[in-house]
């Protein structure tokens, strides 16, 4: 009797074979369709534990999917699809219990009637589990820090099949590791977050033409340095992509305050001659989140990302210089500081707390392009990355030991490896950003 057949008999209606809708949904991630031997959809932490124990005993590889945006498609083995663990429960004191399979758009919608929110990523359909384990740089990062900074408790299944409750007093080292260390240590089956007020928000966008992106970057840097924690924004510089997506810098902004105050804070940007459109006003937190693309785009993204401790003029010059390339180039600068920077570097596994901004550059290499195009896509990227001091895992589509050493500083990585040796010595869990024991 095969492992899949045996597990199906023990867990009826949970194990799904190829050809079923549940299999197709669980095997599909943002980057493509996987080919696991089976997909299991547990409905409780105890069921997750049973699946893990069974797979480990049979020597079957495990892939855990909670959203699937950052995962590689599984080739063989067993996928544990956490989409049925999606409950959102508001508790006393603004605490909210959320399953890893919930999507952030659903979380925002559920909390909005209470005037509350949990800082998360920018996209509605990203899963709670994957984003949280990787850090979670979201809309309210300057007000409330990372998503991991407001985690108060994690229900967790280890490689031994034990169900643990992790918090500051219970299994504190493992609690530290899962807040930024990814899915290397087991399966998170429920998170408890400290939600915060998100009423009274104003925001929107300011669009610029392509005439002087360097001036926009410099003005944005100065605005964010002088702005309060309540001011959160991302600056994108977009290449020509479609008629409804004009090229040039785009400011996405939100403030917990008044529209008058927002316009005053943004005046150095609003007065630039390259401004083409201004849309600012009251906004609800769920409306700040965007719909993600339906699937992987018809091009490869080649570039890099990193935390920038000092957004100097030299750094801005290097970032702007990357736009001068034959391939379409996209820049992203996410304002940090505030609550993000008031967290100690060793408080979570995301250690780059001196980052003034998160910077990313991506060249769009069309499908079917030859090796010369991919080689040229790296031109100028290294010069820009010289101003960064470490990658953000959730924005890093490259994998391997060398990439892991760029995500985690040496002391952080050594601590993560020690915890891995303790809780998963046989290396059962091997996510895309794999930390070996």
TrEMBL record:
The record's section on Pfam families has: BBE, FAD_binding_4
Domain of life where this protein originates: Bacteria
User: Keywords on this record?
Assistant: FAD, Flavoprotein, Oxidoreductase
* Keyword Oxidoreductase appears in the UniProt entry: yes
Its needed co-factors are: FAD
What are the boundaries of the signal sequence?
Answer: none
Q: Which residues cross the membrane?
A: none
Which InterPro entries does this one have? Answer: BBE, FAD-bd_PCMH, FAD-bd_PCMH-like_sf, FAD-bd_PCMH_sub1, FAD-bd_PCMH_sub2, FAD-linked_Oxase-like_C, FAD-linked_Oxidoreductase, Oxid_FAD_bind_N
Describe the location of the FAD-binding PCMH-type domain by residue ranges. Answer: 32-198
Q: Which family does it belong to?
A: Belongs to the oxygen-dependent FAD-linked oxidoreductase family.
Q: What is this protein called?
A: FAD-binding oxidoreductase
Taxonomic lineage of the native organism: Bacteria, Bacillati, Actinomycetota, Actinomycetes, Micrococcales
